[in-house]
Amino acid sequence: MADMREPGIYGLTPRRVPSGNAEPDITWLMGRRLAAIEKMDWSWFFRLDDGSVIAPESTWRVVTPQGVVVTSEDHDQQFGLPAPVDAAAVAGKAIGGLTVTACNLDWRTGDLSLEFGSISLQFLCLSGGYESWRITHGTQDLFCTGGGKIAEFRPEQK
């Protein structure tokens, strides 16, 4: 099946990646470590040890075998605690120096999950219209667009 192309942002043409056809390579995530989690204004940035960045514009969460530990929605909430929740600190403590052991991309929803052993860092698509997350890795730019559709910008388009 040929690439499905349509005009994109900034004059680039994204390659739409339909389920089961020419899926983008995200195996490079394997073995990566989380170097930093930052919140700047309304955006979150998950920086990996190789310089790659995952930038969710939607909800993310950390899940252990015991359940949900923290989500982006918890950030700065008091919850009756002595201090507001620092979601970056809680997520960083849960994941620590662990490496990515598996990565999964749900082609129906656009949800991305990084597995750190028994701990999951999940980036969720919660909109039929807005971009949910993006990954920048070297020359690869991967986006979860509205409705969970995945778009990849290739190096020759930059």
Provide the structure class.
mainly beta
Shape: globular
How many strands, which pairing sense, and closed or not: the largest β-sheet?
8 strands, antiparallel
Counting DSSP H or I runs of 4 or more residues, the number of helices is: 1
How much helicity do the residues have?
under 10%
Helix and strand element order: EEEEEEEHEEEEEE
Give a structural overview.
With 158 residues, the chain is mostly beta strands. The protein has one domain. It contains one helix and 13 strands. It has one helix spanning 87-95; strands at 4-5, 15-16, 34-40, 43-48, 53-56, 60-64, 67-71, 102-105, 112-116, 119-123, 133-137, 140-144, 150-153. The strands form two sheets. Strands 1-2-13-12-11-5-4-3 form an eight-stranded antiparallel beta sheet, with helices on one face. Residues 1-21 have low confidence and may be disordered.
Task: Offer a quick outline of the entry.
This protein has 158 residues and is mainly beta. The chain contains 1 helix and 13 strands; from the N terminus they run βββββββαββββββ. It has one domain.
